[in-house]
Design goal:
Elements (H helix, E strand, L loop, with lengths): L3 H9 L2 E2 L3 E2 L13 E5 L3 H12 L5 H13 L21 E6 L5 E7 L5 H11 L4 E3 H10 L10 H13 L14 E6 L5 E7 L20 E4 L3 E7 L1 H6 L2 H10 L4 H15 L9 E7 L4 E5 L5 E6 L2 E6 L1 E2 L2
Helix pairs in contact: 2-3, 3-4, 8-9
The structure holds N-hydroxy-L-asparagine.
The site of N-hydroxy-L-asparagine has 15 residues, from strand 10.
């Protein structure tokens, strides 16, 4: 039997007996539900589609899927879905993932010619025994599940790629001017939280490169007891710090969503020990009470929020 002395020792370490982590009382960080938040200002139109679902008492998972699909279908968004900039070989390769309120997840990476990778990711979660499918396998799975093959390289994106071929310089400067990867988190009326993230990744990347967006724990993480976080920015840095998982763990430790996001951006700077010039990475987070926040490394990032106060983009604090 656990003696009182041992119980005190474990709880002092933030652990309940048997190693179960304590969930701190988060009532300090209350918000409203339902609510949807998404990355960048471009998230506003995606929020509209998500709100359609949430405002009718719908399911958070349906809301995030419907929301991010708006940007997957938007040919003017150069970093998501159709119209996304291709890799060095002129191929548009897509990464996406989704997580539900039970912490179940599905993901696809390096997938070509399928316009809605987030919906394929949901099928992976719901109709396969796996969490992640990549490349040709992901495409075959999509085709088997009724998705259609289409060309995702638009004339505009192809023309930009051809211009890039003249210089062949790879400088993934990521900020508002050129990046709109969409990450979204929603909490529905019933308190169910879900998240999704979808991107065509860094323009002119090496063929086969996969960023943080489809990696559970890097681009997206949901802990059913705590809340969720999603990332955007230079994927390599976000992967190296397991960024979204870190944000959720910081909320578990008692930090507000904004503080938790700040800690994750600081971790990227610390880890790269001074080699992070020009790196942009940003996180947004939502807890189970509907409180949200965001933080970025450099200026220029907004969290787009829709709750009963309406739909708006809110600039976040930044480190540099
Ligand atoms: C990636 N994180 O593939 C993505 C890029 C991004 O806005 O967020 N762009 O590295």
């Amino acid at each position: 039997m656990l003696k009182r002395k041992d119980f005190l020792k474990t709880t002092a370490l933030g652990l309940l007996p048997f190693g179960i982590p304590m969930v701190p009382n988060q009532t300090r960080f209350t918000g409203k539900k339902p609510v949807v938040i998404s990355t960048w200002r471009t998230g506003l139109s995606a929020n509209e589609a998500a709100w359609e679902v949430l405002s009718k008492g719908g399911y958070a998972l349906d809301a995030v899927e419907a929301g991010v699909k708006v940007e997957e279908a938007n040919k003017d968004n150069k970093t998501v879905g159709i119209g996304g900039y291709p890799d060095r070989e002129g191929k548009v390769t897509l990464d996406a993932c989704i997580m539900d309120e039970r912490g179940e997840c599905g993901s696809v990476a390096f997938m070509q010619n399928i316009k809605h990778p987030v919906s394929v990711a949901r099928k992976v979660m719901e109709e396969s025994p796996h969490c992640m499918l990549v490349g040709e396998g992901a495409k075959l799975f999509a085709l088997d599940h009724g998705f259609e093959e289409e060309d995702l390289l638009t004339p505009d994106a192809e023309a930009e790629w051809k211009k890039w071929l003249d210089q062949k310089e790879y400088k993934p400067k990521i900020n508002i001017e050129n990046h709109d990867t969409i990450g979204m988190l929603a909490l529905d009326e019933k308190g169910r939280i879900s998240g999704a993230c979808t991107t065509s990744g860094a323009a002119w990347k090496m063929h086969g490169r996969v960023g943080d967006s489809p990696i559970i724990g890097a681009g997206l993480f949901i802990d059913p007891a705590i809340g969720g976080a999603v990332a955007t920015g230079l994927g390599e840095e976000i992967i190296k710090t397991a960024g979204s998982h870190l944000v959720v763990e910081m909320m578990r430790a008692g930090h507000s969503p904004e503080e938790a996001c700040k800690i994750a951006t600081e971790r990227i700077i610390e880890r790269s020990s001074g080699n992070s010039e020009g790196v942009q990475a940003a996180f947004i987070a939502l807890n189970k009470e509907g409180a949200y926040g965001g933080y970025s490394i450099v200026e220029g990032f907004d969290v787009s929020v829709y709750n009963t106060d309406g739909n708006r983009a809110e600039p976040v604090q930044y480190l540099i």
